[in-house]
Each structure stands twice: as C-alpha cells, then as structure tokens.
C-alpha cells in the first residue's frame, strides 16, 4: 500500500509512519511517501473549519497516484465556552472516495502567545521566539513546549491520524 503524506515536515511524516507501523504487522506492507503539497489555507489557519480544510486539501492532493493520502494541519481556534485561544490539530485520510477525519488534543495557549497570534503572527515563529530556539514546529512543537515534554507534537499528531484512519481500519463506518 502506498500512502502519501501531504507535507515535508519530518514530525508530520514520523507521526504517520508511527501510526502505520503500529498496524503493519496486521495488514499489507506500507510505503510512506512525503509529498510537498499546498494546504490551500492561510499559513496560520484560524478556526476549526480552516484548519480541517487544510488537512483535507493536503490529504486529497497527497492521495493522487497513491492508495491513501494523509493531510495534517495545525491551527489556532477559539473554543466555545472555554476562555482563550487554543492550539488545534486536524488530520484527514482519503482514498479519493472516503475521507476520515480526526483531531489531536487542544492546548490552551498562554496569553502572551495568544496575543501575538491575534495580532497576526504565526504560532511557529512565536514559539521559536518565546523559547529562543529555531524550527520548534519541526521538533517538539508547541504541544511539547507547553506540556514540558509530557506529549510532543508527533504524539499529538499520531492521535489525530489514528482517528482519521478509523473508517479504513474498522467496519463501523459506512464507506459507501
């Protein structure tokens, strides 16, 4: 089975590999291919709808010529009935006919970070600045930084991918 991941980000690719490795002993061998595709959304997606749309766009584009396409997108969102701005992550998996969707954990952003994002900055560079590091998004991510490593970006994305893969690994979903 050939699976395209709509990203060159090594953390996103590793998350998909980990999910498929967990299943590989029970199913056919899987070849994971990283594919540079456009998300079709803003560099800093805002809101669940835009973040999910980015994941779906990436999955559709990565699926071309492959058995499955996987798209992952991180964004920020106001959550109804919860104060603050939250980090959110969505995954989509498609075979061109069926699309599964799953999300990772939501983490409330510190007000100092949220304020900068609301002023138009992107989360990755804000976290780089706050931590005095570079490429945080390609390492532990905001999730790792905000939880002091209890979970990292890869683990959070793995949960989203596993959820999105559900229609393809069980009979509970109508794939018609």
Describe this structure in words.
- The chain is of the alpha/beta class and 176 residues long.
- The chain has one domain: Maf protein (Alpha-Beta Complex).
- The protein contains 6 helices and 6 strands, in the order E-H-E-H-E-E-E-E-H-H-H-H.
- The protein has helices at 10-24, 48-63, 111-118, 123-131, 141-146, 153-169, and strands at residues 2-5, 31-34, 68-78, 85-94, 99-103, 107-108.
- Strands 1, 2, 3, 4, 5 and 6 form a 6-stranded mixed β-sheet that branches.
- Helix 1 links the parallel strand 1 (2-5) and strand 2.
- The longest helix has 17 residues, at 153-169.
- The two termini are 21 Å apart.
CATH class: Alpha Beta
**How many helices in DSSP terms?**
6
Number of domains in the coordinates?
1
**String of helices and strands:** EHEHEEEEHHHH
Write the CATH architecture name. Answer: Alpha-Beta Complex
Number of strands: 6
Q: What oligomeric state is this?
A: single chain
Shape: globular
Residues in helix, %: 40-55%
Provide the residue-averaged pLDDT: 93
The major sheet is characterized as: 6 strands, mixed
Poorly predicted sequence stretches spanning 5 or more consecutive residues: none
What is Rg? 16 Å
What amount of the residues lies in strands?
15-25%
- What would the CATH topology be? Maf protein
Structural class: alpha/beta
The separation of the N and C termini measures 21 Å
SSE layout and pairing:
Elements (H helix, E strand, L loop, with lengths): L1 E4 L4 H15 L6 E4 L13 H16 L4 E11 L6 E10 L4 E5 L3 E2 L2 H8 L4 H9 L9 H6 L6 H17 L7
Parallel strand pairs: 1-2, 1-3
Antiparallel strand pairs: 3-4, 4-5, 4-6
